[in-house]
Each structure stands twice: as structure tokens, then as C-alpha cells.
Specification:
- By secondary structure, the protein is of the alpha/beta class.
- 34% of the residues lie in helices and 25% in strands.
- The protein has four helices and five strands, in the order βαβαβαββα.
- It has helices spanning 7-15, 31-46, 62-67, 94-101; strands spanning 3-5, 21-26, 52-57, 75-80, 83-89.
- It has a five-stranded mixed sheet.
- The chain is globular and about 55 Å long.
Length: 114
């Protein structure tokens, strides 16, 4: 399940997050949004600890959607250090989303030899 954020939690959860954050700007009336939700949930599990994936309902949270310049849904914006580094508009395959996200993720630390 993808965590839902709001206008009031966006700054803390996204702009000040220690990890990259993929925000899905979504709406309940959007069929492509419903279609991509299970794909995002799978990616959230597969990339746990490297990226956070959250959803923001644009109807309930118009301030953040407007500030982000969201015009179509779903829009998925990847934030790193509070800045958008990649953006995808419209439903995509899991492989396409992963290819957009992975170049911006922290790499796992190599094991330390003792």
C-alpha cells in the first residue's frame, strides 16, 4: 500500500526526506491512476530503503498539485534533495518506471572487510 500525503505533510515527507521520493499525483476519478497503483506498490516493495513512494490526491490537495505544475494524471515526480529530477505523465510499465527512478537512487554500500 502506498502512503497518502497531503498539502500539510508534503514539505516534510517529500522536500526534506532523506531518501528520494516518488510522488504520484493522482485522483479517484482517474482510470490510469487506478491502473498504475499496483505497479507503484510493487516498486515500493522492491526498492524499499532506497526510495519512498507516496500518493497525493490532487482534488483534496490542490495547493501542492498547483505548485508542482501538475496538469495531467497520473503525474509521477521524483524528488531528490527537495528538487524534481525526473517526471513521467501517464501510466507506464513497471520496467519503464524503474528505468526512470533507478539512476537517481542511492547505491547500496559495499560490505566492509574486517
Amino acid at each position: 500500500m502506498i502512503e497518502e500525503i497531503t498539502d500539510s505533510s508534503f514539505e516534510e515527507r517529500v522536500l526534506h526526506a532523506p531518501l528520494p521520493v516518488l510522488v504520484e499525483f493522482t485522483a479517484s476519478w482517474c482510470p490510469p491512476c487506478r491502473m498504475i497503483a499496483p505497479v507503484l506498490a510493487q516498486l515500493a516493495g522492491e526498492l524499499a530503503g532506497r526510495v519512498e513512494i507516496v500518493a497525493l490526491d490532487v482534488d483534496a490537495n490542490p495547493r501542492t498539485a498547483a505548485a508542482a505544475g501538475v496538469l495531467g494524471m497520473p503525474t509521477m515526480s521524483l524528488y531528490v534533495g527537495g528538487q524534481v529530477v525526473a517526471q513521467v505523465v501517464g501510466a507506464r510499465t513497471k520496467a519503464a518506471l524503474r528505468a526512470t527512478i533507478e539512476p537517481h537512487l542511492p547505491v547500496a554500500e559495499p560490505p566492509v572487510a574486517v
